[in-house]
Amino acid sequence: MTKHKILTKSEIETELKRLPDWSVKGTNIEASFELKTFRDAIAFIVQVAIEAEVLNHHPEFYNSYNKVSFSFCTHDVGNKITDADIEIASKISDAAHRFLSMK
Description:
Blueprint lengths: L8 H9 L5 E3 L2 E7 L3 H18 L5 E4 L2 E6 L10 H19 L2
Antiparallel strand pairs: 1-2, 2-4, 3-4
Helix pairs in contact: 2-3
């Protein structure tokens, strides 16, 4: 099992300042992205899945046509927000912005 650093409220706020797509809701961080097409949404999900496997940290997501939303925390540490959540959130945002910038 990977050791995750549980973040304080202050650390979470600091991290989310650099990740404007994300916010805290309850014990989770969450974000939603609206892509151009269903195909883009599915390709985006596949990209996120690849990143998640590399990091061995798998976010929860929901897809409806071209919209993909995420809401997650780290279950292994008692449903807290950790450095691993911030890392995958950053990779998700990077991937979303690559897809959104495509013509």
